[in-house]
Amino acid sequence: MGFELTEDELAIRDLARDFARGEVAPGAAERDKKEEFPADAVRKAGELGLMGLLIPEEYGGAGLGNRALSLALVEINRVDASVGVTLSVHNSLASSCINAWGSEDLKRRYLPKLASGEWLGAYALSEAGSGSDPGSLVCKAETDGDAFVITGSKAWITSGDHADVIVLFARTDPDAGKHGITAFVVETSWEGFSVGKKELKLGIRSSSTVTANFDGLRVPRANMLSDVNEGIKVALHTLDGGRIGIASQALGIMEACLEASIAYAKERQQFGKPIAKFQPIQWKLAEMEIRIQAARLLTLKAATLKDQGKSHSSEAAVAKLYASRAANWCATQAVQIHGGAGYCTDFPVERYFRDARITEIYEGTTEILKLVIARSLLRK
Fold it and tell me: What is 7-119's CATH number, 3.40.50.150, 3.90.79.10, 1.20.1080.10, 1.10.540.10?
């Protein structure tokens, strides 16, 4: 499988790199400190076309695929993982789900606004009692004429208090477990939607994570994304793409850790010479590069398979698992190379360290991904 990048992919990578360095990086530390949502960066990303990379051109998007999105996300996450996850959820979970499963009416109503960045998308699957086990969710959707009435809450919703449209999964059969779930598209302006608790987090602090409440919210039947009780396949298919997005996030954090560590190691003097001259530091840098190259290839493989319409669930799980663990390792080494300075907010590696931790948790924990990979092996 070849990974030579196309001219369009290279152009998107370079566009995202310039945007990240010029528009996102300057305020990243301050937004993290204040837990301030990156509204200006998100708006600018929409203007540049980075909010519609997976949306076909006929709906106003770029139609470039998951490889292009991955390349863009790596560049953005190198400077700010909070902006990175905001764009990842919008592109790889919300927009891609509507594009893959929505009716023509839903696509024409929602995709152009999502592609332009006029509207921000979110994804609501998890609940307080159902994270790794989505089949146990209890948020319910009851039929009422030509509509469904949604009652319940969703937890840990990225951008939930800033989103205009949410891909929502609710129970339509109380006795059918994972086979009793239906997928919907809902608008946050509709009566019955409200935002609850905002989470105070270790990392990705300027990405907003909230509880979303649904109190008798009416959803037209036309806004179903799946047939009744067929929502779990929509959720799992969409998460495969989301895992490629988080692998890309982890890769961006890793690259940031290596870049910062090289710069510091060349500058920091001990025993009369830069610490970069010492073999223990050199080995740490070399190991970072090894992990970065491996994670890049795994992520590109998964994204390529998805773009080709081929099975990619196991490959996405492998990429996300490996890249997230590697990101945490690289972040730990970056702090160690910086010594006491790395433990302080004067240097960005302490933020990379905090941001890296979530990559092993959301969109499939490391433990769940091992199950996904093992089950794929045992089916062969």
Answer: 1.10.540.10
* Residue 339 zone, left/alpha/beta (φ > 0; ψ -120 to 50; rest): left
Structure pTM? 0.97
pLDDT digits (tens, 9 = 90+) for 157-175: 999 999 999 999 999 999 9
pLDDT tens-digit map of 96-153: 999 999 999 999 999 999 999 999 999 999 999 999 999 999 999 999 999 999 999 9
Q: How far apart are CA 179 and CA 174, in angstroms?
A: 10
Work out the pLDDT band at 250, boundaries 50, 70, 90.
very high
Domain boundaries, the chain: 7-119, 122-229, 233-379
Active-site residue among 287, 350, 363, 367? 363
Amino acid sitting at position 173: D
Is residue 363 part of the annotated active site? The answer reads yes
In CATH, the number for domain 233-379 is 1.20.140.10
Q: How many residues does the chain have?
A: 380
